[in-house]
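It would be a great kindness if you could assist me with a short task in structural biology. The matter concerns a single protein, recorded as an amino acid sequence and a row of backbone structure tokens. The record follows directly beneath this note:
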Amino acid sequence: MARVTNAQVKGIIVTTIDTEPFIRSANVFVTNKLTNQGLSDALLTEIELWLAAHFVAIREGKITDETMGDAKVAFERAKMGKGLEATSYGQQALVLDSTGILAQSGKKRAIIQVVGRNE
């Protein structure tokens, strides 16, 4: 069950889209990766909130400028390939995660194999 609501996510990111799919994704991630890592329920909720907003921002961007006369809206697009650092929402989730698990997610792992002969 999700820790955050549509209204809570829309409280930190301006959007007209349904945030439920993003909340579900954030919930699955937080539940699978961060539960039982020593973080409080309140902190897990905050991380889930900022992670859901990050997913929304990846989809549609963050409004950076609104103008009423001649209706202008400007969006900040996420920087692809940057993971959670691509949006201010993802950056906030990273700050809240004291385990470092979010920072490591999505990073490539190096594998070193030593091949040789034993003599």
About this structure: The beta strands are 62-67, 72-76. The two ends are 58 Å apart (CA to CA). The mean pLDDT is 87.
